[in-house]
């Protein structure tokens, strides 16, 4: 399931369901983005020809560099982030490998960042030459929202296993799950009470056959259960 999340609300604006053998970059190449968009992706989407297309369309990208990326340093700006001990390098580079340089001949920026919690180093590449180095790391950190989205789909909507095994059955279950996520996220945003999505899913499942106003319940889930039961009993014995 190939998905593009819009950062405003972190909801999918595009989804394609393909066979597992279809590489994600083949789907990404078919997409178009509005002018000035910032596309954040993992290393699996590093295709220099496609990155050049994004740059030509005046879209910004932030991704992790491949471990075998060959490059030449044009300018070293690391000292500009001297006050930030987590910025290990901030350089302007060009690709030197024959194929890579032919596909992306322009300059790009490379930032090496040290994660203070794990001690792991991350090397980011991007085509925006003006952002602060810390901003690059912060932007990539927001990519974690897509991992959270898939976690919600798999855990809360039971996509770890499938009811049917045919292609049509699997697609129906996945599309149904996506529709359910959109509805749940909409209810979460509309509710006056601050719900965690996991709690919202659980409580809605428990109250599926309870005749109460949905919006009122979302705003105030801790209603008087005893009063609701008494009202229901009176109606049960009317007439």
UniProtKB/TrEMBL annotation:
The keyword DNA-binding applies. Pfam families: DDE_Tnp_1. Transmembrane segments: none annotated. Residues 1-183 form the Transposase IS4-like domain. Keywords: DNA recombination, DNA-binding, Transposition. InterPro entries: RNaseH-like_sf (IPR012337), Transpos_IS4 (IPR047952), Transposase_11 (IPR002559). It comes from the Bacteria. Belongs to the transposase 11 family. This is IS4 family transposase. It comes from Olivibacter oleidegradans.
């Amino acid at each position: 399931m190939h998905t593009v999340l819009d950062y405003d609300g972190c909801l999918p604006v595009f989804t394609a369901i393909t066979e597992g053998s279809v590489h994600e970059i083949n789907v990404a190449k078919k997409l178009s983005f509005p002018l000035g968009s910032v596309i954040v992706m993992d290393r699996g989407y590093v295709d220099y020809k496609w990155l050049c297309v994004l740059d030509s369309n005046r879209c910004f990208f932030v991704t992790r560099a491949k471990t075998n990326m060959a490059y030449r340093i044009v300018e070293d700006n690391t000292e500009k982030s001297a006050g930030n001990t987590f910025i290990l390098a901030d350089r302007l580079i060009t690709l030197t490998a024959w194929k890579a340089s032919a596909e992306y001949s322009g300059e790009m920026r490379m930032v090496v960042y040290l994660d203070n919690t794990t001690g792991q180093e991350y090397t980011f590449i991007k085509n925006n030459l003006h952002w602060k180095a810390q901003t690059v790391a912060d932007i990539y950190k927001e990519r974690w929202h897509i991992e959270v989205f898939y976690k919600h789909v798999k855990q809360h909507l039971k996509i770890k296993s499938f009811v049917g095994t045919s292609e049509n059955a699997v697609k129906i279950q996945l599309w149904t799950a996506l529709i359910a996520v959109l509805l749940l996220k909409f209810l979460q945003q509309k509710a006056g009470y601050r719900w965690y999505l996991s709690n919202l899913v659980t409580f809605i499942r428990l109250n599926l056959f309870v005749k109460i106003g949905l919006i009122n319940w979302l705003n105030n889930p801790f209603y008087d259960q005893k009063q609701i039961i008494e009202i229901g009993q009176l109606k049960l014995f009317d007439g």
